[in-house]
Amino acid sequence: MNASATGSITRAEYxxxxxAEAWRGDGEILASPMGAVPSAGARLARLTFAPDLLLTDxxxxxxxxxxxxxxxxxxxxxLALVTGGRRHVMMGASQIDRFGNQNISCIxxxxxxxRQLLGVxxxxxxxxxxxxxxWIPRHSPxxxxxxxxxxxxxxxDSARAAGPSATRFHRIPxxxxxxxxxxxxxxDRSMRLASVHPxxxxxxxxxxxxxxxxxxxxxxxxxxxxxxxxxLIREVVDPARARDREVRS
Length: 249
Known about the structure:
Pfam families: CoA_trans
Number of strands: 13
Strand content: 15-25%
Largest sheet: 9 strands, mixed
Oligomer: single chain
Order of helices and strands: HEHEEEHEEEEEHEHHEEEHHH
Structural class: alpha/beta
Helix content: 25-40%
Shape: globular
Family: Belongs to the 3-oxoacid CoA-transferase subunit B family.
Protein name: CoA-transferase
C-alpha cells in the first residue's frame, strides 16, 4: 500500500500505527499507554515487531494483547521499573510546548486558574525516570502552546536546566496527534514535524500549532499499516472500534 491507495484506512488507524511505532526497539520494557488509541498501538506492537513488550492492566497484572493475565506485577516491582527507566509511558497532554513540557494540572495562573484539570499526578516522576511519549487526539493551538501554564511533564529545556540528575533517563521519543507525528531531533531539542498523516498538509499542522515547528524540506507521510497489521487492528486489537471515538474521521 502507499499514500495514494489508502482510501480504506481511517485516520484513527494511522494514529494507532504511529503510536505503536513509539515502542519499536524498546525490548523487554513495560508499556503504559493511556487512551484507546495508544492502548491499541501497544497491543499491536506486541503482536508484531515488539514481542518482548510487557503490557499491564494499569493495576497489578501483566496481560497479553487479548487482556488475559500473564503475570503479577506488585507495586514495589512497578516502582523499580519506573525508577530504573524500564517503562515507556504514553500520556495525554492538556498543553504541550515546543520543548515537550506537558501540562495536565491547570489552565491559567496557578494562584487563580481559569480551569482545574487532573493535577500534576505522577508526570514529573514519569518524565524524569523513564521514556514518555504523548498522544493528543485534538491537535490545536490551545494544546500545542508556546509555553505551558504549568510544567507537569518535564520537557527538554527544563531537564537541561535541572542538571545531569534530571537527564539520566529523560527521553521523549515522540508526540502523536490526529494530524501527525513529532519528535525532538533538532539541535536544541525543540519539536520537529516528523510525518503527517495522509490527508493532512504541512500548512494545516502549522496553523494548528501555537509555536514555530521545525519542518524539514520533505515531510513524509505516516507509514501505512500492512494488510496484516490492519487486520489485527480491526479484528483483534480493537474490534469494538474504540479508536474512532478518540479520532474524528
